[in-house]
Amino acid sequence: MTPQIKKSLILATMAIAAAVIGVLAWTALKPSGPGAGFVSGNGRIEATEIDIATKLAGRVLDIMVNEGDFVYAGQPLAQMQIDVLDAQRDEARAQSGQAVTAVASAEAQVAARQSDKAAAQAMVGQRESDLDAAQRRFARSEPLSRQGAVSMQQVDDDRARVHGAEATLTGVKAQVATAEAAIRAAQAQVVGAGSGVTASEATIARVEADIEDSQLKSPRDGRVQYRVAQPGEVLASGGNVLNLVDLSDVYMTFFLPETAAGKVALGSEVHIVLDAAPQFVIPAQVSYVASTAQFTPKTVETASERQKLMFRVKAQISRELLQKHLKLVKTGLPGMAWLKLDPQAQWPANLAIKVPE
CA–CA separation, 17 vs 20, rounded Å? Predict the structure, then answer.
C-alpha cells in the first residue's frame, strides 16, 4: 500500500469518526420525548416578509443596502430617479405663481368695479338733484303760462328738461346696476383664481409626496433577505426592489394530527428546539390553529405521515425575547416544536426554557 493511499484511508477514517461523534453529540443534546401530555411536530423558523416596492414606475437610481444587512425603521434603503418629478414640481410651482397673480388681478378688478359703482351712485345723486330742480321749474312755469306771465315756449322747454333729467337718472341707475354686475363677476373671478391657487398647491403637495415616496425606507426593523432589482433597472408601479424579514415577528409552523390538534388551545405553551442550536430551548405560544386539515409538505413529514390529514399550527415567539436577540435571529432553520396539551404536566429538565444570554 502506497503512502498516499494510507494517508487517504486515515483521512477518511477521521472524517467518519467525526461524523459519528457529531451525530452522537446531537442525539445526546436533542431533547427526548417528555411523555403523555405533550405532542410535537417539526417545522422551520419563519418570519413576516415585507416587499419594499416602488409606488411609481421609474428607474432605480441607487440601492443603499445589501442582502443580509440589518436595517432599522425609517432607514433609507433605495432611491428612485426623480428627474421627471422635479420637473413636475417646478411646473406646479410656476402654475401656483400664475394663480396667485390671477387672484391679485381679480381682486384689483373687484376694487375697480367697486369704484365704478361708487362713481355711478354719486352720479345718481347728482341726476336726482337735476331732476328735482327741473320738476320744480316746470311746476312754477306751467301755472304762470296760463296767466300769460311766461311763454308757452318756456313751458315746453321746462317740460323737456324734466323728461331729459328723468332719462339721465334712469341711465345713471343702469350704470349702477352694471357696476354691481361687474363687481359680482370680478368676485367670481377671485374665487376661481383662488381655486386655481388651491389646486396648484395640492399639485405641489402631491408631487412632493411622490418625491418623498421615491426614497424607499424601511417600515420596521429587519434584515434584507433579497435584492430583487438592481440600480439602473426600470420598474413598473409596485415593482419590488427589496425583500425584508421582520425579525421581531418570528414563528414556527408545524403540523399536528387530528387527535392532537383538537386539544390545542390558542396561547398553549410551546418549547422550540432548533437543529442548529439544540442546547437552547426557546419559549413560544400557539397563535394559530388551522380550521381545516391538509396534507403536510414533504419537507415536514415522511411519506407515511403525509398520507394523514394534519392541521397546521403556528407557534409565535415572544416579541420581547426577539428584540433582545435581533442580530442572532435567523429564518429557515429547522427544528422541533414541543407543545404541552395537559396544563398540569411539567416540562422535563431537558426541555426547560434556556435562551442565549
Answer: 5
Which ranges of the chain have pLDDT less than 70? 1-35, 138, 141-142, 144-150, 155, 158, 296-308
For residue 300, the model assigns a pLDDT of 53
* Predicted TM-score of the model (pTM): 0.61
User: What per-residue confidence (pLDDT) applies to 26?
Assistant: 41
Distance CA 307, CA 90 (A): 65
Q: Give residues with Cβ within 8 angstroms of 58, minimum separation 6.
A: 80, 81, 82, 84, 214, 234, 235
In contact, 48 and 350? CB cutoff 8 Å:
no
Query: Which residue pairs, CB below 8 angstroms and at least 24 apart, start in 87-91?
Result: 88/203, 88/207, 89/204, 89/207, 89/208, 89/211
The C-alpha cell at 336 is: 422541533
pLDDT of residue 67: 92
Measure the CA–CA gap between 79 and 60, rounded to whole angstroms: 6
End-to-end Cα distance, the chain: 53
Quickly list DSSP for 280-299: EEEEEEEEEE-SS-EEPPTT
- Predicted local distance difference test score (pLDDT) of residue 20: 46
Q: Please work out, in degrees rounded to the nearest 5, the angle formed at the alpha carbon of residue 270 by the alpha carbons of 268 and 274.
A: 165
Residue 57 region by backbone torsions, left for phi larger than 0, else alpha for psi between -120 and 50, else beta: beta
Q: Are 344 and 36 in contact (CB under 8 A)?
A: no
Residue range 52-89, pLDDT digits in tens: 999 999 999 999 999 989 899 999 999 999 999 999 99
DSSP assignments along 153-164, one per residue: HHHHHHHHHHHH
Q: pLDDT value at position 127?
A: 73
- Look at the block and give the residue holding cell 442582502: 67
Which residue bears the cell 350704470?
Answer: 175
pLDDT at 307: 47
CA distances from 122 to 109, 169, 173, 183 (A): 20, 11, 10, 17
Buried b (16+ CB within 10 A) or exposed e, 88-113: bbeebeebbeebbebbeebbebbeeb
